[in-house]
Write a structure and sequence with these properties.
The complex is a heterodimer of chains A (373) and B (496). Chain A is mainly alpha-helical and 373 residues long. Chain A is built from 14 helices and two strands. Chain A has one domain. A two-stranded antiparallel ribbon of chain A has the order 1-2. Chain B is mainly alpha-helical and 496 residues long. Chain B has one domain. Helices cover 70% and strands 3% of the residues of chain B. In chain B, strands 1-2 form a two-stranded antiparallel sheet. In chain B, helix 3 packs antiparallel against helix 11 and helix 12 packs parallel to helix 17. The radius of gyration of chain B is 22 Å and the shape is globular. Classes of the chains: A mainly alpha (373), B mainly alpha (496). At the A-B interface, helix 13 of A face loops of B.
Chain lengths: 373, 496
Amino acid sequence: MTITTSRHPLAAFIDRFYNGQALLPDSPDNVKEVVGILVSYGYVLEAYQENLQHIADQEFLTIFPFFKYFNNGVSSSQLFKHFAHDRINFEYAEYCMKVMLWHGGGKLEEYVESDDFRQLIELAIQAKIKGNPVNQLLHRLFPEFLPEQVRQMVYYNALGQFWQVMYALFLDLGKAYDHGQITTIPDVVGFIKAGLVAAAGNPIVYAVKIGGESYDILPRSANLTFLMDVAVPYVEAVFFRGTPFLGTVSYNAQAGEIPLEQSAFAYGALYADPLPIGGSGIPPTLLMQDMRHYLPDYLHEMYQNTKRQESDLLVKICQSFQKSMYCVTSAAILGLAPHDLKTNNPQEQANNLAYFESWMDRFLTSQLRNIQG
Amino acid sequence: MLSLLLVVPLIGAALAAWWPGQTRSIASVIALAVIGWTVFLLTQFNLGEPAMQFVEDFTWIDSLGLSYKLGIDGLSLPLVALNSLLTWVAIYSSDEKVDRPRLYYSLILLLNAAVTGVFLAQDLLLFFISYELELIPLYLLIAIWGGQKRAYAATKFLIYTALSGALILAAFLGLAWLGGSNSFTYNPTLAHALPLSQQFLLLGALLLGFGIKMPLFPFHTWLPDAHVEASTPISVLLAGVLLKLATYGILRFCVGLFPAAWQVAAPWLAIWAIISVLYGALMAIAQKDMKKMVAYSSVSHMGYILLAAAANTPLSFSAAMIQMVSHGLISAALFLSVGVVYKKAGTRDITVLEGLLNPERGMPVIGSLMILGVMASAGIPGMVGFVAEFLIFRSTFPVFPIPTLLCMIGTGLTAVYYLLLINKAFFGRLSPQVQDLEAVTWRERYPAMILTGAIILFGFVPGWITRWSEPTIFATLQPPAIVATVATISTPDLQP
């Protein structure tokens, strides 16, 4: 049903929002696929967030954090597993962190660039380098180096906090689906939106312990919150912009294959080409490799019933993951809408339409059309 | 001993035709038995003996002068081994649900026996009978299990190759008649005694006959059609073994029986080789169908063998031998890979296919084997194709420098058309038409893998091919006294 007066090429998707639908069409298969992949994503995020928090807390200003991926201590058997690649790809979590750090956004970026932050972290830095002449010399010679490391630690911590909420949300979604409480795509979107809204105001705080004393890095007084200062920048950085470098495809900057402006980047998960060769996006391969270990049986069964069965598992996971990310994005778009969609106020209606069209502009070159089949 | 190489596949053909069920298994076992017996012959073969070995000689039809005389020497042994190997490969790579399996497998085994008969026959008439006998199963294999235009392709194949047979028969009858012999036993001295004009006449008929079968320009047109319409296993046999009947015939009969006339004709043959090499390569560049491209590549590569034969030196003969085996392995591997692509994608059109090397959704192993195959065909070092082509150019350059240089352009063109194929069909992003392909099974990969292994192995140890044939080649090329008398006959000057 056509509701809006938009002439946007993707106006049909705006209509879907007004019809209570989402960017992904509603079908039992889509529900099964999206929930199944989000459950596996939940398990992976749980591991990722643990490691991110571990690095932020335990590897704070460790110049050479050789064992940062070893949350549970280092042993020869764990080292062997690590080098044999029998492990979670924690690198992917770091890539996401670096993408967030690079693209910035929200009050979090403003705060880590503020003088308040600089003064606060100087206390932590001094405590950390106390009795370490090498690091003291380093700090003296390159006064921006350690603060930048702390900014990075902030993003480790913030992303860890974000995923701490999201993993639980996705695992709960899976349980709700198993209990028959989730049957449609709008149910999925509603569940995620409710989870995001519930956590929206959660404060983002970060402190480290050095020499038995706690040092604030992100104090409560900075008024940083879950949704606007972490979740939204995360979606912007990871779903939309991404980076052209952290994948398997080489891009030729000299040939103009990489936009000059960061804001024009479209390498995020929503743009990734599941068949990567020659495509414009990079599939999150490491994440896909991790998720395959946690796929629920019903998703395995679904994949097995295809022509290639699971010989192209990573492509299937990528496609399912993209579908699920469009559901998460749907939830975020709906949750951030400036006005109630049922408003009768013409100005508010116009604002809403402009808001949706601005999102649709960004989807023009994305995989949105390709996930409709 | 040698008769077993004929009898076993013939018994196998009968068993496959009449034994209820298990036809494929019977054919496989028989093909493996033939391989086993071939390996045994290899172990028993006296490497230092240039003459025929394991000779079996019985009078068959005395009034016709036909005798059942078999023998094997360094020229025929590698080709017998190639035939045994590729027959098994063809059976293994055949569709397990092929229609009319009894007839299908029995025809393949019959074809094997006929081809082996060609290589072993030491009686001209027996050679001709085997040469003709091979047409029937091959015609049926194309006509029954071929593609949409199979009737046209099979009939064209039959007409061309029957004409080839007729010319060869005419030459053999002429030889016996002009030589005043009542027997058709292979006897070089009989031919050497003929006047040169008669030798030219007979050599011309043989050259035309074998030229059609090889095939050489302009008698090649049956081959691309036959390849395109034939199923993959039949293409393997056609390119791998059947074309070698003609090249073998040229070395054995054209050079072996008429060395003096050959010496005179050689410069013209070198020109014919250039035309065939370059024409085949240029036609391959123009093709969109992968199989047709490989078929035209065969036309081009057969030209190298003619060039080597024309040079008429022991080294060039060794080069020709190794090129025969090399082409047999490489073209078979390429046809197998193309066959898998066609089976999965439903097309061989390189304007449609793209990105087949995609590790998840494509066919990366088949793509890799294809790349190795085209590398071998283009003469990349480390593979048997390089050894063959290098030896050919090394041996023909002192004799025919300009033709050799022109033929070397053909090698460059081989890289051009095969890079076009690889670039279009295998690199890039999977085209929409081939994004939902069935996965390739290991069973479908094994035949091309085995042949690729052999291509690489012989690339490093080419002596494992040449060691069998060198003594025979040296003996074959002992210049007869009569050759010295032909110096006055004019020939094109191909020296720089």
